[in-house]
Amino acid sequence: MRAEATWELNWELNSEQPMAPSIHVNPAQQAVIDLLSGRNLVLGSAGAGKTTTLISSVEQRLREGVPAREILVLTYGKSAVREFKESLAARTSGIVLPYIGTFHALAYLIVMGSVSTSNLERPELPRLLSGAEEEARIRQLIAGVLADHTSSGAGIEWPSSLRGAAKTQSFAREVRNVIARLKELQLTGADLITLGEQEGRPEWEIAGHIATNDTQVMALENVMDYNSLLLAAITLAPSSPVLSHISHVYIDEYQEVGPLHRQLLAVISQRATVLVAVGNPHESVFGFRGSETDMALGFEAEFAHSTHFQLTDSWRFGPEIAAAATAPFGAKGQSAVGYTQYFAGAGSVKINKYASRNARAAFVAEGIYNSHMLENVPWNSMAVIGRARSDIPLITRALNRAGVPVVVATDEIALKDEPAVQVLLGLLSIAEDPEKASPASVADLLTGPICGLDASDMRRLGRALRIVEPHVASAQLIKELIAGTSKGEANLDELDARLKPIVGLVAQLHREIASDTPVSEIVWTAWTGGEKFPHGWPQRLQSAALSHSAPAHHDLDSIMALFDAAARFAERSNAGIDNFLTQLKFQSLPAEPVAARGLRADAVQVMTVHQSKGREWDRVWLVGLEEGIWPNLVARGSLLKAEEIGVGSSHLALNPVALLREERNLFYVACTRAKEALTLTCIDQGGEGGDQPSRFIGDVVGTGVTPVVVAGYPKNRSSWSGLAADLRRTLADPYASTELKSRAGAILADMGPSVSPGTWWGLTPISQSQRPVRPAHKPIKMSGSSLDSLLQCPLKWFLDREAKAQVSRGSATAFGSIVHAIAEFVAKGELSQDEQQIRELINGSWQALAYEADWQSQADLVQAYKAAELFLNYHNLTPRVFKEAEGEYRTELTVTTPSGKQEAIELSGILDRIEIDDNGRLVAIDFKNVKNPPSKAEITENGQLGIYQLLLRDQQDCEVTADFSQQETIPVGAALVQLRVDASEARVQPQEAINFSETPTWIEVKLGQAAEIIRTEAFFPRVNPSCRYCSYKSVCPTTSMDVLSRDLINGGENGDDSFN
After folding, report:
1. What are the CA-CA distances from residue 813 to residues 107, 344, 497, 817, 851 (Å)?
2. 765-796 per-position pLDDT tens digit
3. Alpha-carbon distances of 12 from 100, 360, 570, rounded to whole Å
4. N or C terminus of the chain: which is more exposed, having fewer CB within 10 Å?
5. 19 has a pLDDT exceeding 50
């Protein structure tokens, strides 16, 4: 029997870190370090050593013999947790570290610990919802309340102003914010309904009803959101075994602590001998929480008879940076946030004004590059901080162009949401109970990086399996194959070799899970495939990473983080993989975001002010200092105005004065990240209507800093790759002189083989493969779909068909597969024509399709319904008689090439449908779902339909006469049936029946042209109407007007006409 999970604070033995040198502290800091009792609030300016003081306090307690289990350290975020741990570990080699975490992580342990130690024989652990899950559930609740309103004689009266927004995602997000606000204030949905009635706010009454339903549903489903987690922890904390030994509590960044966090802290500290909280109200960047006086009074109200301390000396920067950072606070404000003395060296502050954002980005990149190359400043000692996310892409591109290594800080992503981790979690979920796996999850596994099937492979697989069990949906048969429960043996051809290892791996993982194999070993088997079923994904990722693929590096980092999580889980508990998967899937509290690993690389870091919180660099550049952007005084209002909800009454949201105070805080935090040099940048376009420098720039100018107007763009690229790019551009410039080109080529040659012109594509002689594209002694194999694509553009045909470089069409291909499957099932009588049944079949298959956006999926789903409707209309009204669906045909013939040679051709094709006309002739039908059907003129000699006629030639019972005038109608040999049209009927595009008695026919001429291209391997590009949609457009020679490209194109049979 599997042991139950245990929930307790996790202490770590630090035995590998070298001891860091001792740090210097001033008397004010030492007084805090020596605190052994009481409730203590430490207010400190930015750079005054608040966190350092807290780390030193914990270090001293450990060295005095206080057990690690009695010490608790809480801070505001996972990155801050990591940095606190690393700093403490560097100072305490060989000592067990205390628990260091966030409030939410601690609350999670308290709740889980209380449930697991309950008297229930098999307690059900509550599930923590992610933000996306919360919004999805709230959207369902909104739909329910809205349905109550629309049903007769029941429901709640919805204001007309809300009805239009009720079904939107943004409205669900606002309702979620209202529910979070209620829990923060410990109000109920009923309280909000009453408040809405008192204040005349019908939107609050609606939100109150939704909140009431939400509370009931969460209780029934045993789930929690973050605020519910905190509320539960507050209730359970007094008797929680997790906190039973805590005597010393230390809180970092207290200014970011919200009302529920403070309540939890009050309960925790009841048992504690000493509480020390450090913070600075002027560094609050996650919503303004009041002035320094408010923060001190709030702490006093929560903890009576508390003691307050001040840290006002700067250890990070000198007076120049301090003056700039505090300038917007004014004289009175500067006295509150100012500094007593400075222990850091003198720094510098610059203000640079630019005419445009592009110019600013280029000059910032140049300044950073020169700092590294000329002054030896390490890349990771510099950062660019912006007020808004919109500033980041432009700066990042400029840094990349300048050859500066750069890492962009991202929002913390839960480990379960990392793409590579999702692949392994999906495999493990299937292996845990293969018979209960969904067809969609199996499809994701097979089309993911472990197996690598594409949409065409999946369609062939489904078709092969349906031969054995024709009355079962393809998706279900594929799922049964992977689960090992197939009822028959299908002929899978080459797919068999690719699928057998996956089937074996799922079975092996299932056995390991059933035998209680350690979690880390199970994850390792999934990652590698084990000894028996290696799938090669780790090797492919490694190869991509060694080729400098950033996504591959990120994926490997996320896999490493997954193994770290498995190791931590095994240390805390001997529970099985099911508990591990539950912990990962249903809670968003990863120990460390993968993005944070990248931020430790030797690269310049680009981020917003909020992401820079708690960090420092030698040199910092601030961007976005334009009026209207920083400060941003636009009211943060919303439809439901959650921010105005109060206890017993409403209150106004932040006014412009409060908003300006919050923006000053952001500026203060951003400036105080710099230790040695701070550069403030702004756009100054003068006059009316253009960007103007922020008022904060004017405040800093008042401290004695003189702005510098920087005109134009950097004159020279200072990076190696930038120089190479300029020289290459010179060589390709048709107007550059021969002498200038010669000099540029010589410099490039001296720069090394990586950029030398001798290594450029197109300059070496065209190679000739020793192995022909098609064996000379065998017929050329052609299919219906390949002929037109070959003649339209031989180069694209070669890249698609021979080089296998085609880009997967993804959902577009799957869309067609679903419609074709319905057409086949209905035609064969395996599916009724009931519209509802067909829609259910479409819906069941649709979930497996990968769409980038929900709106796109919904739009295509409507198109699929329409296509099915048009097919049924065609099926029932066509004047011809149905004969066969999905029939496979082959034939051989000899054609004459344009040069007069005879070539044997082997044709094959799977025909969507074959019908018989009134004269007994077979007619080939091909269903299409394209958005842009061919014209009537193009249908006349459509190669695919022509080949289909050739395939049916030997099956015909009657011939086509040469004189059509004796027939009432021109006979049809084949037709395209367009099912993706905005009409009540399918659009039928017939092709005239070919009279094969007159040779050569037009289709034989086309086949001769195709055969000559393949035999001579003349795969040259041709401009055609489809070029605008081509996947190779960016590298196609037809898009370049240089001499080399012209020569390549002119080598084709059409010469310069290829451009026409």
Report:
1. 47, 63, 24, 6, 12
2. 666 677 788 888 889 988 887 898 899 999 98
3. 10, 46, 14
4. N
5. no
Given a contact cutoff of 8 angstroms between Cβ atoms, the answer to whether 555 and 420 are in contact is yes
DSSP string, 283-346: G--SS----HHHHHHHHHHHSTT-EEEEE--BSS--HHHHHHHHGGGHHHHHHHH--S-B-SPP
Picking from 1005, 1045, 1049, the residue whose alpha carbon sits closest to that of residue 795 is 1049
pLDDT recorded at residue 155: 53
Contact 251, 257 (CB under 8 A): yes
Residue found under tokens 């030398």: 756
Rounded CA gap, 404 and 604, in Å? 7
Window from 445-459, 742-756, 1018-1032 with minimum mean pLDDT: 742-756
Per-residue CA distances from 45 to 28, 39, 673, 892 (Å): 13, 20, 12, 86
Burial class (CB in 10 A: 0-12, 13-18, 19+), 770: exposed
Cβ pair 288, 654 in contact under 8 A: yes
Phi-psi label, residue 61: left if phi above 0, alpha if psi -120 to 50, beta otherwise? alpha
Spatial separation of the C-alpha atoms in residues 136 and 176, rounded to whole Å: 10
Q: Show the tokens assigned to 20.
A: 């860091």
Residues 6+ apart with CB under 8 A from 1056: 1049, 1050
At 552 the pLDDT is 75
Residue the block writes with tokens 């200092």: 625
- Preceding amide of 1000 cis, omega within 30: yes
Bridge-partner residues for 72, per DSSP? Answer: 99, 249
Contact 974, 923 (CB under 8 A): yes
**Which contacts (CB < 8 Å, 24+ apart) does range 634-640 have?**
635/659, 638/174, 638/177, 639/162, 639/165, 639/171, 639/174, 639/203, 640/174, 640/175, 640/177, 640/178, 640/203, 640/204, 640/207
Q: What amino acid occupies position 108?
A: Y
Contact 260, 234 (CB under 8 A): yes
Instruction: Give first-to-last CA distance, the chain, whole Å.
Output: 76
Q: Is the dihedral of CA 557, 562, 564, 565 positive or negative?
A: positive
Q: Residue 1046: pLDDT above 50?
A: no
pLDDT of residue 1055: 38
Count of residues making up the chain:
1060
Q: Where are the alpha helices (DSSP H) in 469-518?
A: 474-483, 495-514
Q: Are 448 and 439 in contact (CB under 8 A)?
A: no
pLDDT of residue 1: 34
In whole angstroms, give the CA distance from residue 632 to residue 697: 14
| Alpha-carbon separation of residue 551 from 498, 522, 558, 590, 917 (angstroms) | 25, 25, 10, 20, 56
Q: 18-22, 516-520, 541-545, 880-884: which has the highest mean pLDDT?
A: 880-884
Q: What are phi and psi of 997, to 5 degrees?
A: -75, -20
Distances, alpha carbon 930 to alpha carbons 553, 839, 942, 946, 987, in Å: 38, 20, 15, 19, 12
Collect all residues with Cβ–Cβ distance below 8 Å to 831 and sequence separation of at least 6.
Answer: 822, 825, 837, 838, 841
At residue 930, what is the residue type?
V
Interval 272-300 mean pLDDT: 73
- In order, the DSSP letters of 350-387 are EEEEESSHHHHHHHHHHHHHHHHHHH---GGGEEEEES
What pTM was estimated for this model as a whole? 0.56
Tally of CB atoms within 10 A around 881: 12
Whole-Å CA distances, 919 to 960, 961, 976: 10, 12, 20
Nearest Cα neighbor of 210 from 232, 230, 182 is 182
Helix axes 419-432, 550-572, angle to 10 degrees: 50
Instruction: Report residue 1033 as tokens.
Output: 């457009």
d(CA 58, CA 945) in angstroms, rounded, equals 80
